[in-house]
Amino acid sequence: MPRNPGPGPTLWPVSDRLIDSFGRVHRDLRISVTDRCNFRCRYCMPAEGLEWLSREGLLTFEEIERVARLLVEDYGVESIRLTGGEPTVRARLPTLVKMLARLPVDLCLTTNGATLDTMASPLAEAGLKRINVSLDSLRRDRFEELTLRDGLPAVLAGVDRAIEAGIDPVKVNVVVMRGVNDDEILAFARFGRERGVVVRFIEFMPLDADEEWSDRSVVSQSEIISTIAGAFPLVPVERTSAPATRFRYEDGGGEVGVIASVTEQFCDSCDRVRLTADGQFRNCLFAVDEFDMRGLLRSGATDSEIGEMLERAVGSKWAGHGIGTVDFIRPARSMSQIGG
Ligand code: SAM
Ligand code: SF4
User: Fold this and answer.
1) In whole angstroms, how far apart are CA 115 and each of 74, 88, 165, 221, 305?
2) Ligand 2 atom closest to Cα of 110?
3) Distance from Cα 277 to the centre of ligand 2, integer Å
4) Displacement of CA 103 from its chain's centroid (Å)
5) Per-residue pLDDT averaged across 14-23, rounded?
6) Which has the minimum average pLDDT: 91-100, 238-247, 282-291, 302-311?
7) What's the predicted TM-score (pTM) here?
8) Using a 6 Å cutoff on CB, does residue 205 contact ligand 1?
9) Does the pLDDT of residue 313 top 80, yes or no?
10) Considering all CA atoms of the chain, what is the largest pairwise distance in Å, rounded to the nearest integer?
11) Do 2 and 311 meet the contact criterion of CB atoms below 8 Å apart?
């Protein structure tokens, strides 16, 4: 039961799980801690012109912790991923990690790795267990073209420092785009095998701020896997509710995965909910409706009232995003504003 039930005809939680009308149980929470970023990846943010949220508009660490605690303690959420924008540009991020690490959850961070060289140790000491570093080219000139920052050496150093700090696993996320970096699929497979990191290839999704996405720019899971398997034979690993389709190298060289949001949609096993940096609760990355958690938190709501909103939000979740169908609607906000 909630710790602070309010008056009213119904006390939430009605259930001890967040279950939608399709029977999907929600166990994974993605929290965006900022909409700002020190990179400008062309598949995510425009080079200029995005307006930032005001400082007052951001949820405070205490507000984030309250929502996270409720989801973990009252609704059985088991994993939390911090994201953004670039989460490491939020001041005092290790303090938030420390607050959330007290909860019984699998706590993870997705970062562009630009400052990981100095941040990895403080984050590990604060209790961060797992990390995903986004890296879309191993060629310095191309990396700069893609991010508008000459950041490859810093990101590679950051990956090494995260491993040294004992963060395990360290995974590398690669968004593959046709004609942009699809000639580096094998180079990334070798990189993962040599450094002992799991590489996750991500299909390009229609969430880029410049709206340049088209289905022709997507490199499919089957193409990615057959490219890798041609050089390093692969064996499928049984799927979980996690978004990646996983494979292990037959020769024991580790694991590789693909997040195939476009060509092999996994909405029927989705267990994710999201909280944006400005406190909007979302039941899907592609949702067109948001639920104003910040307004509720700042109006003195009880845990029961917050639980009622969480259950209403999850209860209204759709079957799937429908990318590639006539039903698909592009969300009003881009990836960096929602939190990937
Ligand atoms: N700044 C951090 C980073 O880059 O890892 C966290 C936020 S970023 C929005 C989260 C993830 O979304 C990254 O792995 C990024 O590559 C991915 N991403 C961003 N835009 C994307 C798009 N249009 N399609 C597929 N993945 C995208
Ligand atoms: Fe920044 Fe991450 Fe978006 Fe790149 S993908 S612009 S690093 S938020």
Assistant:
1) 35, 7, 14, 30, 39
2) 2
3) 14
4) 19
5) 87
6) 238-247
7) 0.93
8) yes
9) yes
10) 64
11) no
CA 141 – CA 152 distance, rounded (Å)? 9
**How far apart are alpha carbons 37 and 39 in whole angstroms?**
5
Enumerate domains of the chain plus CATH numbers: 18-338 (3.20.20.70)
The helix/strand/coil state of 164 is: helix
Structure tokens at 33: 């801690």
Distances (CA, A) of 292 to 59, 75, 204, 306: 12, 19, 29, 10
Whole-angstrom distance, CA of residue 40 vs CA of residue 47: 6
pLDDT higher than 80, residue 325:
no
pLDDT digit string, tens, across residues 110-144: 999 999 999 999 999 999 999 999 999 999 999 99
Q: Whose CA is nearest to atom 19 of ligand 1?
A: 44
Supply φ then ψ for residue 269, to 5 degrees. Answer: -115, 20
Output the pLDDT for position 330. 76
105 lines ligand 1 (CB under 6 A): no
Alpha helices in the chain (DSSP H): 61-73, 93-101, 116-126, 140-147, 152-164, 185-195, 221-231, 293-298, 303-315, 335-338
Rounded to an integer, the average pLDDT of 80-103 is 97
What value does the mean pLDDT of the chain take? 91
Ligand 2 touching residue 41 (CB < 6 A): yes
- Nearest-atom number in ligand 2 for the CA of 37 is 1
φ and ψ of 240, to 5 deg: -115, -165
| Pocket of ligand 2 contains residue 40 by CB under 6 Å | yes
Percent of the chain with pLDDT over 70: 95
The residue that leads in pLDDT, 318 or 329, is 318
